[in-house]
Amino acid sequence: MLREGPLGMLGRGASAKNTAAPAQNDRFALESAGPKVSGSIISPSFRGIPDSERQRRIWDALHQEFGPDSVQRAGTFLAFTPDEWNLDADPNA
Questions:
Q1: 10 within 8 A of 30, measured Cβ to Cβ
Q2: pLDDT tens for residues 7-64?
Q3: Given 3-state DSSP classes, what are the helix, strand and coil percentages for the chain, each rounded to the nearest 5?
Q4: Do 8 and 26 meet the contact criterion of CB atoms below 8 Å apart?
Q5: Are the beta carbons of 59 and 53 closer than 8 angstroms?
Q6: Contact in structure between 35 and 73 (CB atoms under 8 Å)
Q7: 39: closest CA among 5, 72, 82?
Q8: Measured between alpha carbons, how far is residue 92 from residues 29, 85, 88, 89 in Å?
Q9: Which of 88, 22, 15 is nearest to 57 (CA)?
């Protein structure tokens, strides 16, 4: 089941601080698979940043938000810029 929404869809606990709030232009296409959530994160902040650094930033935010529990709750996340995400979009549409 693919859902788009904020990072909060990962199931932020009631006592967790929202210190890794997404920027207004960030988009998330998330999918639940059992106890884990995986998906794609689309953000202009990834422009010019290598894949390894994008992943580090994602996991840093997850660890900051969920602590050690993040490895139990998070699956695979792919990081895209808006241009990368829309690569197959028709430029004449």
A1: yes
A2: 543 433 333 333 345 567 889 999 998 889 999 999 999 999 999 999 999 999 888 8
A3: 35, 25, 40
A4: no
A5: no
A6: yes
A7: 5
A8: 24, 17, 12, 9
A9: 22
